[in-house]
Amino acid sequence: MFLAEFTNNILAWFPRLSTPITLLLVATVAYFFGRRRSETSSGGAMRSRRELQRAQAVARELENISELIRKHLSKHHSSVSRFKQRVNRLGDNNQDADLREVFREAEQMLQPTIQFAGQIANAYDQIRQQTNRLMAFTDARTDPLTGVSNRRALDDNLSGQLALNARYNVSFTLAMFDIDHFKQVNDERGHLCGDGILQEVARIIDENARETDTVVRYGGEEFVVLMPETDLEGASHFGNRVREIVAKTLPVTISGGVTQAIDGDSSESIIGRADAALYEAKTNGRNAVCRHDGEQIESVLEQAVVEQA
Questions:
Q1: Does pTM surpass 0.70?
Q2: For residue 146, is it within any domain?
Q3: What is the rounded distance in angstroms from the CA atom of residue 102 to the CA atom of residue 105?
Q4: Domains in the chain: how many in total?
Q5: Range of the domain at 5
Q6: Which of these, 149, 172, 151, 152, lies nearest to 162 by C-alpha position?
Q7: Shared domain check, 64 and 199
Q8: Rounded distance between C-alpha atoms, residue 6 and residue 101, angstroms
Q9: Considering only CA atoms, which of 79, 251, 257, 271 is closest in space to residue 159?
Q10: Catalytic residue among 221, 233, 280, 302, which?
Q11: Which residues have CB under 8 Å from 191's CB, separation 6+?
């Protein structure tokens, strides 16, 4: 609660603070107050390395945003300074020609000023998105069994991605996986074995995801992966690669559904399409991945065969 309130206060002050200071405060507070719980499993060291890589990726993104704003701010400041000098000279020599020239310069500066305001708004959205990613390190946004993010983290990151998509056409994809016949695993081998299977599936998904992706235990035996700046083709390859690794290394299989954000999407609509594609994969015999392009559902493997032909 404290972390969320502090972060929101920092963002509210964003227009008043210098960009590097704001980014430093957000990144530092979110990471150190939200450091994930100590690891107890044998894979703790590996998971810590992945967490570090993701934290470094977020730091790089924040640094890029800071540098971009610094450049735009410097350019805008120079334009304002020139305009101020013109106005001051006008006060000393109030001639019609000078007045008209000032008006002309004001019109020329208006469009860059509007563009700069848009750039600030874009940076604000990106900072909120990176903050959500950093906050995924906290216990409140972590599934205690598998160590990946939970639905709260998904809600925060998904809403941020939808905002970026709606305002700036920044696309993303979403994949949903479900362990096949998981109830049978629990019934025949026990819940302890089932928990181990969940942890291994989460590990495989997490290890094959990028630092910028959000891996979530969605509920029970379901997992969701949010992939920024990824098209449907890339998400399809990812989904099928994870499916193959699970089938080769674990005593279970998984099915998956992938989809890409489209205009007018909400959290419910994009999750609904991924779920519909997952259901199709289950219906077609499981151990499969299907994708939904917004109009139809097709098997990833069948589409790959068509493309190769």
A1: no
A2: no
A3: 5
A4: 2
A5: 1-141
A6: 172
A7: no
A8: 47
A9: 271
A10: 221
A11: none
CA pair distance 24, 7, nearest whole angstrom: 11
User: Do residues 132 and 167 share a domain?
Assistant: no
Order of strands across the sheet with 297-299?
214-219, 222-228, 172-179, 254-260, 289-292, 297-299
Q: What is the pLDDT of residue 31?
A: 47
For 123-154, write each residue's pLDDT tens digit.
666 666 666 556 555 667 889 899 899 998 89
Give me the sign of the Cα torsion angle 26, 30, 31, 33. positive
Instruction: For tokens 């934290």, name the residue.
Output: 55
The strand pairing partners of 256, in sequence order, are 177, 289
Encoded tokens for 89: 């000279």
**Exposure pattern of 63-95 as b/e (b: 16+ CB <10 Å)?**
eebbeebeebeeebeebeeeeeeeeeeeeeeee
Report if residue 147 sits inside a domain: no
User: Is 233 among the residues known to form the active site?
Assistant: no
Q: What share of the chain is helix, strand, coil (3-state, %, to 5)?
A: 65, 10, 20
CATH assignment of the domain containing 266: 3.30.70.270
Beta bridge partners of 214: 226
Alpha carbon 191 to its chain centroid, in Å, reads 32
